[in-house]
Every structure is written in C-alpha cells, then in structure tokens.
Amino acid sequence: MKKHIFLALMMVGSAGIQSSYALPQALGSFAAPASIELARLDTLSLIEWKVGESMQYDVTAGPFGKVGTMSKEVTADDGTILVVKTVMDIPGQRQDIETWINKDDGSVVKLIRNGKEEALPAADDMEVIDQSYESVTVPAGTFDSLKITAKTKEVSKIEIWVNPQATVMDGSIKTVLQTSMVPVTIELTSFIRL
After folding, report:
1. What is the SS3 assignment for 160?
2. Rounded CA separation 118/13 (Å)
3. With contact defined as beta carbons under 8 Å apart, do 133 and 146 qualify?
4. H/E stretch holding 6
C-alpha cells in the first residue's frame, strides 16, 4: 500500500513540478479579493526565495493516517537559477529531488531524482480546472489562500492551497491528491523565512 501511495506522490511531483513553480503562467493575472493579501500572484513575487528558506510537511493517506514527511529547501542561488531540494520520506522509501528553476520565468530547467537527471515534464501536463479563494487550516496555522483544482494524466483530481506571501517559496500550504487507492494529503507543518 505504501509503495502505491509513494508512486502516486512521485508521479504528481514529476508532472506538477513545472506547473507549481510556474504557477502564474497557468493562472494568468488572477486578482484576489481585497480581504486576501494575495495582491498579485506573479512570477517575480514567487521567485524571490532565499537560500536556507524551507517548508516541512506531513504526508497522510486516507484511513492509514500519517505515512511520512516531505521537506523543501532552497539550497543554491546563482542569481539566475535557484536550486530547490525536495525530500519525500516514507518508511522504506526515500526520494531526493533537486529542481533547478529559472528565476526569470519560473521554468524548471533541470530535474535530478536520486542523483539521476530526468526528462522535464511537459508544461501542459497539469490542467487547471478551477480556482477560488478560501481559508485553510493546517498544522502550521490558518491561512487565506488561493485554492487551485487541477488534474494530470496520472491523477484525476489535485487540490492545492497556496499563499507565497504568508509562507515562503512556492507557498504550498496543503495538497490533496485523489489517487486510485486512497486520497493523499500533504499539509504544511512549519516553514523558515529568512
């Protein structure tokens, strides 16, 4: 069971990495209501990340509860390219993913999984179905957020709550993946802003 959940997370990670870091291109200029401090969700505001900033998450799988953790950290910035290291740790299985992101446009230029470079996912692998604003509560707190509902070829429904101004990096607060086995939820537990 854990292997199937882990594989689903990795498929979504591969398909959604480019889309999550280049989120503004997918959404266009989407103005938030005045009550939410997401004044402008544009590429520049999403990629003003600092080396050492990080986000930590719990990963749960339906009735099985917590099955692991995930962390993301900015590990390098050469002025043009940011390197983000993501670690998915589920007992018995660990994935280390290094994502190289062009700061000018948010595109992923290199993806290295467990030390091996992989082909980049197509930018159109994730289709945005709906977007709305709502409050979301996770272990790290309660946040006003932009909720994006999307799908990929591998996952029929993905719900992502983001607010890069209230958190750090790409602003991912909560993600729910509807897999063929059980829903998988990734919730922000803490973050470090520098």
Report:
1. strand
2. 12
3. yes
4. helix 2-21
Q: Does residue 34 or residue 42 have the better pLDDT?
A: 42
Rounded to the nearest integer, the mean pLDDT of the chain is 78
Q: List the domain boundaries for the chain.
A: 2-192
Mean pLDDT of 40-66: 80
Distance CA(93)–CA(75), nearest Å, equals 22
Mean pLDDT of 108-131: 86
Q: How far apart are CA 154 and CA 143, in angstroms?
A: 29
* Alpha-carbon 188 to chain mean position: 10
> How confident is the model over 180-191, as pLDDT tens digits?
788 999 999 999
pLDDT of residue 25: 35
Q: Give DSSP secondary structure letters for 58-123.
A: EEEEGGG-EEEEEEEEEEEE-SSEEEEEEEEEETTEEEEEEEEEETTT--EEEEEETTEEEPPPPG
Q: Domain 2-192 falls in which CATH fold?
A: YmcC-like fold (2.40.360)
In the three-class reduction of DSSP (H, G, I as helix; E, B as strand; rest coil), residue 187 is classed as strand
